[in-house]
Amino acid sequence: MNSSMETQVEELLRQSRAAPRGPTAIALAEEAVRLADSARDPQLGMLARGALIDAAGHGGRSDKMLVAFAWVLAQCDAGERKEPLFHESTWLWRYKWVGEHVAEFPHITRGQISALFDDMELRYARNGNSAKPVHKLRCNACIRMGRLEEARHWLRLWQDTPKDWKNDCAACEADALGQFQLALGDFAGAMQTFAPIVEHGRLRCAEVPHLTYSRTLLPLARDGQAERASQYHEQGYRRIRGNPDFIEPVGRHLEFIGLYGETAEGLRLIERHLTWLTHSGSPLEHLAFYIGMRQVLAAARAKARGETRRLRLPREVPVWRQDGVYRWDELIQWADVELDKLAGAFDARNGNDYCARRVKEARA
User: Fold this and answer.
1) Residue 193 · residue 174 · CB < 8 Å
2) What are phi and psi of 144, to 5 degrees?
3) Is 172 left (phi over 0), alpha (psi -120 to 50) or beta?
4) DSSP assigned state of 254
5) Which DSSP letter does residue 4 get?
């Protein structure tokens, strides 16, 4: 490989790391991968895919992250190179990102998801690491699939297993535990777990309290604490409005607005974030966004004086109109079609009606 090619790849990786999280950073890393592969240099390919995994994982394209990580693991397993970059231990931290998102794609079967976690646990063990992060990710995947009894099993194992340095930070651990408690019906326990994050501000990281605020909105409002939920909505939304990786929490904010907030604000958020559907590679996160969007549209139709509304929607959406005037029923029907399609695909994979029940609840 000539030095000119190496310099080009390194410059693309520098630009990708410096770019804001999202499509630009991802595109720069993808171009670095293309050049590295054209040079047929495995080490440069590993470096470029490491940058792509980072950019895609933090920029809403977990689909691209999963593909890049599979290539990296294949290189590690080939055993042809001895440099640290080709040893699986170098990539175990990023393996957690893959495990966090693997259940978000309905074409990935339950058997494949289970096999991935088995593989992850094996790699952690042979590198002297605790299985605690793997148990946590199994619990997360089960909750995402609506398999709550299995989630309880993995939650207990996660809590009972000793930790080591491969565990997430204290803020992420608390956010995850509170998320699991909410999903399993323990509202009081979840709010107690969330308190150091949302009340006292003692726990912080790159994605906490961003995610945490969005998780609390509907549970608080349904508990009669709508004013507190509104405060968390204002504080939380400011933190997530600029990164397409947060399309799912934006969906939760929309759902809260549709049920308890001002529909004018909800419509503005739809206009602002609908393009994120084209930047996000996670169908499960799309489901959350469509649920929130439908709540806002239904609430707005109920309050509207007419049958139409002018909106600034992106050309990419199938209902786009050049004049920007949309019928409420047309928009809600579009959301319903997408919801039924996504829920059906996930429930077929999950072996239950968990997503269909979520959609039914939103329509009610």
Assistant:
1) yes
2) -60, -30
3) alpha
4) H
5) H
Q: Which of 284, 311, 217 is nearest to 255 (CA)?
A: 217
Q: Report the run of H or E that residue 149 belongs to, with start and end.
A: helix 148-160
What's the Cα-to-Cα distance from 332 to each of 13, 298, 307, 344, rounded to whole Å? 42, 7, 12, 18
Where does 223-353 have alpha helices with state H? 226-240, 247-260, 263-273, 276-279, 283-303, 328-350
What residue spans define the domains of the chain? Answer: 1-86, 241-364
Alpha-carbon distance of 89 to 92, in angstroms, equals 5
Q: How do residues 170-193 score in pLDDT, each as one tens digit? A: 999 999 999 999 999 999 999 999
Phi-psi group of 246: left, alpha or beta (phi > 0 → left; psi -120 to 50 → alpha; rest → beta): alpha
**Peptide bond before residue 209 is cis, with ω within 30 degrees of 0:** yes
Q: From CA 275, how far away is CA 92, in angstroms rounded?
A: 33
Report the SS3 class of residue 322.
coil
d(CA 270, CA 261): 14
Cα(126)–Cα(52) distance, integer angstroms:
26
Residue 1 has pLDDT above 70, yes or no: no
Residue 302 has pLDDT above 60, yes or no: yes
Backbone φ and ψ for 242, nearest 5 degrees, come out as: -105, 0
pLDDT digits over 140-151, tens only?
999 999 999 999
Place of tokens 């890393």: 29
Name the token pair of 302: 């109920």
For residue 334, the one-letter residue type is W
Give me the residue label for tokens 């509304």: 309
Token output for 87: 């040893």
Q: Among positive and negative, which fits the CA dihedral 338, 339, 345, 346?
A: positive
Using 50, 70 and 90 to split pLDDT, how confident is the model at 261?
A: very high
Q: How far is CA 99 from the centre of its chain?
A: 11
